[in-house]
Design goal:
alpha+beta, 2 domains, 6-stranded mixed barrel, two-stranded antiparallel sheet, 14 helices, 12 strands, 56% helix, 18% strand
């Protein structure tokens, strides 16, 4: 009477069979390897994009609000923003909104900046002294734009560290002159590195008094006066941000005599983070889905190659059943073969994916990363796929008629 084969024996037989067919086993695992590597690498890319955006937004400040001209509809449709957000609005917010600590109006424009024989097209910002604290910038050398600079519309400029490097390399830039449009400006300060926000490298910008910006670059609008690009507002503290947003909205609606849709938008760091998280979260889910398709295809590959293996091993299966092997013994052995292939393929694919994420983090600005839960989940899924797609070949092998199988000998 034939004895039952233990699980350890079935495992050893499955492993021995796979080792004796190295090429077929390697090709079978290839789909799982590619699938696991794809899932981990693509999820790492998605999370890297999300982390990068969050890091950039964190530089804006937790209790900072941004007031921009135009409402959501005009921004979605790409309509030119109205010029009715004016300097008087910024003054009114400072004077009349109790939950506001500081207000920093800003006018931005792209201009050609020259120094010696070199010229660059960069973003110029006309600002007030409050800009430094509201936007959490820091001075590395010299000083920032002062009230006297603003009151006198002086030709003073503060530049970012990257712009300083572009023009002056390792030499000191304080006291040097750069030319913006048709006027010469004295460099009075160099900012500390701040990084980029939404593709704008703040370290390559130049900052001049807002009055100088109006007088020499942008001019006044004949209808609205001094039109602003946006207004940065610092609330008294993080808990007052919502109250400040509500009060600013009401004040500007009154000042602009709005009865229906707003002609401005008030945005907080939290609003921007929610938008970014929704976008990058959807991107990560999409990328993970693409990788999961690769994993699914790998499972189909295991099933197909194992079905071929069943047809090639008909004689072996028939002989084993003829000498007493049970249907369950054959089933377990083939399931073990599928499980071994998927687990080893999953481990190799996981290591490949983690290596890819590590390399991406080194050679790109994306802080790509993958959590332990994602890694473990991917490995568990790959093992499960091996079992699921191995059931059909295993069942077919176990149901072979030994007499029919032996006739082919």
């Amino acid at each position: 009477m034939a004895r039952d084969i233990s699980l350890s024996e079935a495992f050893k037989m499955a492993a021995k069979t796979l080792v004796s067919n190295k090429l077929r086993s390697s090709l079978t695992m290839l789909g799982i390897i590619i699938g696991n590597a794809s899932v981990i690498t693509l999820v790492g890319l998605g999370r890297g994009a999300q982390t990068l955006a969050q890091n950039q937004l964190s530089n804006l400040g937790a209790n900072v609000l941004f007031i921009v001209p135009g409402n959501n509809d005009t921004r979605r449709r790409g309509i030119a923003f109205p010029k009715n957000l004016v300097l008087e609005d910024a003054i009114a917010i400072k004077d009349q909104v109790p939950s506001v600590k500081e207000v920093a109006p800003q006018i931005s424009a792209n201009e050609i900046v020259q120094s010696n024989s070199k010229s660059l097209s960069i973003s110029i910002a006309g600002i007030t002294p409050e800009f430094l604290n509201v936007r959490s910038f820091e001075i590395n050398e010299g000083r920032f734009i002062s009230k006297n600079d603003v009151n006198g519309a002086k030709s003073k400029v503060v530049i970012g560290p990257d712009l300083k490097t572009e023009f002056f390399k390792d030499k000191s830039a304080l006291g040097e002159k750069i030319r913006i449009k048709d006027s010469s400006y004295e460099i009075v300060g160099i900012l500390k590195p701040k990084g980029a926000v939404f593709g704008n490298n703040q370290d390559k910008n130049a900052y001049i008094p807002i009055t100088t910006m109006v007088n020499r670059i942008t001019g006044k609008d004949p209808t609205f006066g001094v039109s602003l690009s946006f207004i940065s507002v610092e609330a008294i503290n993080k808990n007052k941000t919502s109250a400040a947003k509500f009060q600013i909205t009401n004040l500007l609606r009154q000042r602009h005599k709005i009865l229906r849709d707003d002609d401005f938008a008030v945005r907080s760091q939290k609003d921007a983070l929610n938008i970014v998280n929704n976008i990058t979260g959807g991107l990560t889910f999409l990328l993970a889905g693409i990788g999961a398709v690769s994993l699914f295809v790998g499972g189909i590959g295991i099933m197909n190659i194992m079905l071929v293996s069943v047809s090639e091993r008909t004689e072996e299966i028939g002989l084993r059943k003829a000498i007493g092997a049970k249907q369950s013994d054959i089933l377990i052995q083939f399931l073990f073969e599928a499980l071994i292939l998927s687990v080893i393929g999953g481990l190799v694919g996981t290591l490949s994916g983690l290596s890819g994420v590590f390399i991406i983090g080194i050679i790109t600005p994306l802080p790509a990363s993958v959590g332990l839960s994602t890694t473990l989940s991917t490995m568990i899924i790959s093992g499960s796929i091996g079992l699921i797609f191995g059931v059909l070949p295993a069942k077919r092998a176990s149901e072979l008629d030994p007499i029919v199988a032996l006739r082919s000998l």
